[in-house]
Amino acid sequence: FYEFPVIVTNRETGAVEADRFIFLDTASGTMGQEQINLIEEGVLDGSDGIPYRHTFVFSHTNIFRPSSTQFASTFPREETFFLLNQFAHWNCSIVFCGHVHAWDEREFEGVTYLTLDSMSERNSPEPGDYLVRVHVKNDGSLTWEKVHMNYTAKKK
Prior knowledge:
CATH class: Alpha Beta
Strand order of the largest sheet: 1-2-3-4-6-5
Largest sheet: 6 strands, mixed
Number of helices: 2
Shape: globular
Helix content: 10-25%
Number of domains: 1
CATH architecture: 4-Layer Sandwich
Number of strands: 8
Order of helices and strands: EEHEHEEEEE
CATH topology: Purple Acid Phosphatase, chain A, domain 2
Strand content: 25-35%
């Protein structure tokens, strides 16, 4: 995994805060014991003394199934529960997922989970909203929107 804090000074109060970006290595469909151990040791618990306004997590593998016709997560069940609890513990604002090439949006335990559409014509020949633009204002307020990419299929 990788963690990147972005330090922000509040213009109104002068307080130093941070928005945190965590990138998990889930391409194999599992976190793996090494990442689990580091998370359990508290490596990502924010012990640097700077308060986090928002925590954003990025994972290739999805947590939730977008619909009954889509594949479910490939995380082992215990790992799924571990991650759901950890994301709530970190007070995540948004967890971004992929893997199933289909849009899904839901909230669980106060955390927003977004599974993004495919960006590959081979995997999803229909146009979709492939990107999400996140707006975090200086006061810490957060909004997000789907961005339509005006995708057109290749001509054969």
